[in-house]
Amino acid sequence: MGLFPYFWNKSSILKSKNIIKGRGAQKNTPNKFLQHVYEVREDFLEFCRLEGEQAESNKTEYIPIFPKTIVNKVDSPDVGMLYSMNPYQGCEHGCIYCYARNAHEYWGYSAGLDFERKILIKKAAPELLEKKIKHKNWKAHTIVMSGNTDCYQPAERRFQITRKCLEVFLKYRHPVGIITKNALILRDLDVLKELTSHQLVGVNISVTSLSEKTRRKLEPRTASIQKRLNTIKVLSENKIPVNAMLAPMIPGINSHEILQLAKAVADHGASSFAITFVRLNGAIGQIFTDWIKKAMPDRAEKVLHLIQDCHGGSINDSRFGLRNRGEGKVAQQIHDMAKLARIKYFKDKSFPKLNYDLHEQYKDGQMKLF
């Protein structure tokens, strides 16, 4: 048993040369809701290699689904939103740490590669949204697009569901929040500017690292760091408020960049920033562990131990109030650096509140005259 860790690490180093390019997860983990497990055997992979064949396709598949509702009530006390909506389930960005991976299991897929390669498309999202916010009992409250998966992921370029939803928000003068790490949001600058003129939109741009090498490993199909910073700049120049999400902080990978990240987003016009701590809940712990031992074998054990130290000895932390903040000395150092960054770069800045007063007048699609 004493030799097992040595051979395991040696094997992971050899496997690091065979990373699936363009993907975060390197395998499909079992779905906890399914009785049977699909497993790709090593002898089958070796056969495919010798025959010059692919064991499975790495192409992205778009699958239409037909939900009855689109707006979700968020019950978690750790998330700064009450309502969210997601035009897409699954996300081609492939961020290895993404908490949304677990949601793919509810649809019968894996939280691993399936999450990145099988994208579920909700074409009826604009109509469902309109029905929801026109309901007589609905009171305006910020609905956040991308509470789970990125509404500006690559699929949006083809299906344009997010843009159609923004047009619904504008028509009914309803407040909307957006979370994204894709520069594609600038395509909809015209609609965003109109929403901003009524104080109806706030944008959250995720910037995880200033290193392109780190970004490509953590978030393989996302916009480059420079494009994200430029997106913050363009939005801010057009008076559209931007909060930078410096998240997640992963000790041993990007946690040392907090001050530099805060300065960069401030210099490009962000009104505020927020951080969250990495939390590898559910199947993500297994997916992340497999990935880091292949993608960063030299630091894998160190990073995993640091994450455990910040979550009470486990990489899977479900405790409300702590799971997104972490605990212990390392986590405290990260939060102290964030406080210092706010003093240095965001002293006189703040993210504005959205307008909830207009919607009631526009529930019928036009302002009431009487």
Automatic annotation (TrEMBL):
Pfam families registered for this protein in UniProt: Radical_SAM
Gene3D superfamilies in alphabetical order: 3.80.30.30
Top-rank taxon: Bacteria
Molecular-function annotations in GO: iron-sulfur cluster binding; lyase activity; metal ion binding
Keyword set, alphabetical order: Iron, Iron-sulfur, Lyase, Metal-binding
PROSITE patterns registered for this protein in UniProt: RADICAL_SAM (PS51918)
Domain called Radical SAM core: residue spans: 74-314
Name this protein carries in UniProt: DNA repair photolyase
Organism, as annotated: Flagellimonas pacifica
